[in-house]
Design goal:
There is one protein chain. The chain is α+β, with helices and mostly antiparallel strands. The protein contains 17 helices and 22 strands. Strands 5-4-3-6-2-1-7-8 form an eight-stranded mixed sheet. Helix 14 packs across helix 15. It is elongated, with a radius of gyration of 31 Å. Bound molecules: adenosine-5'-diphosphate and magnesium ion (MG).
């Protein structure tokens, strides 16, 4: 027997490569759009017929190719983007493997027309199933048009394997969006069956997002911005109340390239953790810029997976950036200065006094005066009458704490939009209306609070703090409370006992399915204890908490929901005032632990806009 190993013919090698690079029409769309971007285009047109099976055509106004390049670009490993291995370490273009055109041409009939600015005539090349068919001069515009016809005509297995036209078109649109979201400054048009599906004009990122996802996004986006040595992060996240039932608008880009990453996705979802329902997903459009040396984009043929050298650090930076952004958004009224119409509104009304940025603090407060803070009474837990007087006192303490150590997440973004929380110096004019909403005046506007939602947030944070802060002793009950539960609930109660202990409960098993409660968090009305345990168990039945933290959070949420003051309850002036100020002192004041909005801020600028003359 002679030797049997031989090199594969070029056409076969290309088809094998195409198996990786061109899995479906959308992959060809991605490669062609990326080439147009790499060619420096400012205007790109994508035409699709028959979900890409009949035709994918990309026309750009980029740099174009010479006659020879137009022929060679179909060779495998033909690229103008890298010359040596050093270049691989500093990739700034989207393509660099020189495989795309060769792969596409091996599984379709491709026609390329291209012209450089300085050339008088362009050139047209026809290739089919890796075979060169023809090349001839043509007169055409500057730039390049690549037409891919009858994709997979020579690979029936793959053609048959394609999903429904609707789904294949959806994948194509996804690729179009990913390019559109990175290149907001480029004019992009998508035609499907000769109809315009998307026509995008150059815009800033926010308006590009709105153009793609709809006008409602104008109200939904919170800007994100962070610059560090390791990474620069920018973009937008969706407000928690607009989270989605399905994993929808979640986009990561690094150095202008879309990628997926479960690890970094986790950083964002954990930052949203107790602000959105468990089965919901936050939207995000996050752009990372890193030194290309610290990024490996060459781990996957379609390059949608990347490796960050500093993944752990980036995770931490991303998580805190998102938390900060969420924390800020409700404290700073969202004014879209980039919107054309806002040009009519002067940023400062005439004679408007400009308040310098300031942080409120109590001048008498000395953090070193009380080395051990002593027991902190938590007296405002119940909605039963009589306990409300105490709402004010615990607040003052947390107010001091806050004033002495403001974190960046708590600080308003700019002096003009500064919220002065110093009640002791400037009592807030407040009122309750409809036995449900609280209205307060802030230095820069009006705050409207939902009393029940707000109190849920306040209590939740206080319960969460109890876990690390053991200064509030449980309240020993004069008459222990006995409860009977089902066998299932008895098991659950036992498994929760450790966490309940941490919140200040002392519960003892007392024979079959009976428990005796000897102590409860201070401030809880004894008659409220049995129903409280009942609702904690009820919530526990539906929750599927896996980690200890989630378990504890679940209990804290149940307790906060159960014990919060309800809508319909009339509050006294100082209770209203305390509730608003305590809410604003929360770490995440804008939503309840289950993700419902707690407050709304209407700035004077917003009001001015509302009452402005329209002629
Ligand atoms: P890669 O993008 O990895 O270099 P491709 O197979 O996608 O490989 O393209 C091969 C080469 O063809 C590119 O390096 C580029 O020089 C040229 N090319 C492809 N598309 C265009 C285009 N639209 N405009 C100008 N040049 C292009
Ligand atoms: Mg390419």
């Amino acid at each position: 027997m002679g030797n049997i190993i031989r090199l594969l013919p070029e056409a076969v090698a290309n088809q094998i490569a195409a198996g990786e690079v061109v899995q479906r029409p959308a992959s060809a769309v991605k490669e062609l759009l990326e080439n147009a971007i790499d060619a420096g285009s400012t205007e790109i047109k994508l035409i699709i017929r028959d979900a890409g099976k009949a035709l994918i055509q990309v026309t750009d106004n980029g740099c174009g190719m010479s006659e020879q390049d137009a022929r060679i670009c179909f060779e495998r490993h033909a690229t103008s983007k890298i010359k040596n291995t050093n270049d691989l370490l500093a990739i700034r273009t989207l393509g660099f493997r020189g495989e795309a055109l060769a792969s596409i041409a091996s599984v379709a009939q491709v026609s390329l027309r291209t012209k450089r600015v300085d050339d008088e005539l362009g050139t047209q090349v026809e290739v089919s199933g890796s075979s060169f068919i023809s090349q001839s001069p043509v007169s055409c515009k500057n730039g390049t048009t690549v037409s891919v016809k009858n994709l997979f005509y020579n690979v029936p297995a793959r053609r048959n394997f394609l999903k429904s036209p609707t789904l294949e078109l959806k994948y194509i649109i996804e690729e179009f969006f990913r390019i559109a979201l990175v290149h907001a400054d480029i004019t992009l048009t998508l035609y499907n069956q000769d109809k315009i599906l998307h026509q995008l004009h150059p815009a800033n990122l926010k308006h590009r997002i709105i153009a793609l996802f709809g006008q409602s996004y104008n109200q939904r986006l919170i800007p994100v911005q962070q610059e560090t040595q390791v990474v620069q992060i920018s973009g937008f996240i969706g407000k928690p109340e607009f989270c989605r039932k399905k994993r929808g608008e979640q986009f990561f880009f690094v150095n202008g390239r879309f990628f997926r990453n479960a690890y970094l996705n986790h950083a964002i979802e954990s930052a949203f953790h107790d602000l959105i329902p468990k089965e919901a997903f936050p939207s995000y459009f996050i752009y990372f810029e890193v030194d290309p040396k610290t990024l490996d984009v060459n781990i996957h043929p379609t390059k949608t997976e990347v490796n960050f050298l500093e993944a752990k650090t980036i995770y931490a930076i991303l998580q805190s950036t998102i938390k900060q952004a969420i924390g800020k958004f409700n404290l700073t009224p969202t004014l879209d200065f980039e919107r054309e119409s806002s040009m009519e509104i002067p940023p400062f009304p005439e004679n408007h006094p400009i308040t310098p940025p300031s942080i409120s603090f109590n001048p008498d407060y000395n953090p070193f005066e009380h080395p051990s803070p002593g027991p902190r009474p938590l007296k405002s837990f119940t909605s039963s009458s009589g306990s409300w007087e105490n709402l004010y006192d615990p607040f003052r303490e947390s107010e001091h704490k806050r004033s002495s150590q403001p974190t960046s997440a708590e600080l308003p973004a700019s002096g003009q939009e500064n919220l002065d929380l110093g009640v002791s110096e400037h009592p807030l004019p407040v009122m309750q209306i409809h036995n449900r909403y609280l209205i307060g005046s802030l230095p820069n506007g009006i705050i409207v609070v939902d009393q029940q939602h707000a109190h849920e947030r306040i209590l939740f944070e206080r319960f969460m703090a109890l876990r690390s802060d053991k200064t509030s002793p449980p309240q020993k009950l004069l008459l222990p409370v006995t409860i009977d539960v089902t066998t299932d609930d008895a098991e659950m109660l036992k498994s929760m006992n450790e966490f309940l202990w941490e919140t200040g409960f002392d519960i003892e098993e007392f024979g079959q399915n009976t428990f005796v409660i000897h102590a409860a968090p201070s401030g809880i009305d004894p008659v409220a204890i049995a129903p409280l345990i009942e609702s904690i168990l009820e919530d526990g039945r539906t929750e599927t908490n896996t980690t200890q933290d989630q378990h504890f959070q679940g209990i804290a949420k149940s307790m906060a929901t159960r014990l919060a003051v309800k809508a319909g309850q009339s509050l006294r002036q100082e209770e209203v005032s305390a509730l608003i100020t305590q809410l604003l002192a929360c770490e995440s004041p804008e939503l309840t632990p289950r993700g419902k909005p707690t407050m709304m801020i209407l700035s004077y600028l917003d009001l001015e806009k509302k009452f402005k003359h329209t002629n």
